[in-house]
């Protein structure tokens, strides 16, 4: 079968045309995954194709999509776009080519403590973000973690995938649905009364498995496994654990704790000495002068440009924003996936930069697009993106296409209003009317914004007055 050009159409804000590689990179119960190449940006994506006939619980599936779209963390898979036709639903996701954590365990037999600590740190960081955001995954297992690349673990990025059993929970309200996978499920889930701490139990089981090569609760049948899980009894066989540190065993015992009242929280786990001492800490990475300058000037940017930068940042590949990702994680001292005013202050204080005249509250207000009182990951990326990235014409064209709803090459007042009414950009645009925004950018006064006017906005309002001559501009897509 040859590669296929597929117009996935319009869904929400996006219009995408992709080449779908005929070679499948994954297949499951509900569909298959292939590589797609975005024709505007030439960026590769993972395209999950699902038959509507195989989706038994449509409402639950839509809840899964909503949760995935709301996730914004370096260690959680990105869902960029969703489309559908009469028979199928397409999920356009971040492409991870490093394989499952499960396969790495099988290949290695067991991990070194350093590699294990690196994985557990990223795993728990994502869990802390989910729990802080009011989401419980409920099916954490090695098969539901992917590595970004095939490279060594100490240079890799781990991503949580598959939110099919995830649930938005309310504080102090127990969940009751029995969900999960036998080896990794917490005893309280089997009892039908549990909270977010079930994810921590699963992380402990995964950590145990990584260090010795087999799970703590093992049996020939699911019933035998679940019987052992209910009792919560496991051992560290000296034959397989004699070279593993006591600190590692101690952390496992805090994670796989039968009574959830005494089980570690994600925050406590990240602060555990075994992780702190063995996983590389991001403290040595600091905010650079140009990044701080970008943060400071972001507040005064045109509101349409802010929205465009958020779109561009959300579509960037990991390789393009790896330095910014490291800075974000270094600033995020408690590892919850958000930056507070105090964390920003601490991060700037630890640099050699002059910071006495910096109005941090103003920076926070200008960058915090959704008004949450803290800076999300993509908000940080949008405010610190290097001009050489966001001024690439293909990146700007992709952002322009989001606003150009009918694809005629012009952004009208009505199209800006459509995006405002959609709700996804309302906070970013900060309440400005569509008429005001259009009038600022419409240089020729024809009542619309063409791509060159859009590019002029991105260039002339740039942070450092960058000229076209300094950049490598591609032909207009």
TrEMBL record:
PROSITE patterns reported in the protein's UniProt record: EF_HAND_1, EF_HAND_2, PROTEIN_KINASE_ATP, PROTEIN_KINASE_DOM, PROTEIN_KINASE_ST
Q: Which reaction does it catalyse?
A: L-threonyl-[protein] + ATP = O-phospho-L-threonyl-[protein] + ADP + H(+); L-seryl-[protein] + ATP = O-phospho-L-seryl-[protein] + ADP + H(+)
Q: Which GO terms describe its cellular component?
A: host cell plasma membrane; motile cilium; plasma membrane; symbiont-containing vacuole membrane
The superkingdom of the source organism is: Eukaryota
Q: What is its main location?
A: membrane
The topology of this chain with respect to the membrane is: Lipid-anchor
For this protein, the Enzyme Commission number is: 2.7.11.1
One molecular function GO term is:
protein serine/threonine kinase activity
Sorted keywords for this record are: ATP-binding, Calcium, Cell membrane, Cell projection, Cilium, Flagellum, Host cell membrane, Host membrane, Kinase, Lipoprotein, Membrane, Metal-binding, Myristate, Nucleotide-binding, Palmitate, Repeat, Serine/threonine-protein kinase, Transferase
The residues the record assigns to binding ATP are 48
Question: For the EF-hand domain, which residue ranges apply?
Answer: 319-354, 355-390, 391-426, 429-464
Q: What does this protein do?
A: Calcium-dependent protein kinase which acts as a sensor and effector of intracellular Ca(2+) levels probably in part downstream of cGMP-activated PKG kinase. During the liver stage, involved in sporozoite motility and thus in sporozoite invasion of host hepatocytes, probably together with CDPK4 and CDPK5. In the mosquito midgut and during the last stage of male gamete exflagellation, may play a role in the rupture of the host erythrocyte membrane.
Record note on quaternary structure:
Monomer.
Q: Which family does it belong to?
A: Belongs to the protein kinase superfamily. Ser/Thr protein kinase family. CDPK subfamily.
Name this polypeptide is given: Calcium-dependent protein kinase 1
Q: Which organism is it from?
A: Symbiodinium natans
Q: Taxonomic lineage per UniProt?
A: Eukaryota, Sar, Alveolata, Dinophyceae, Suessiales
Underlying gene = CPK2
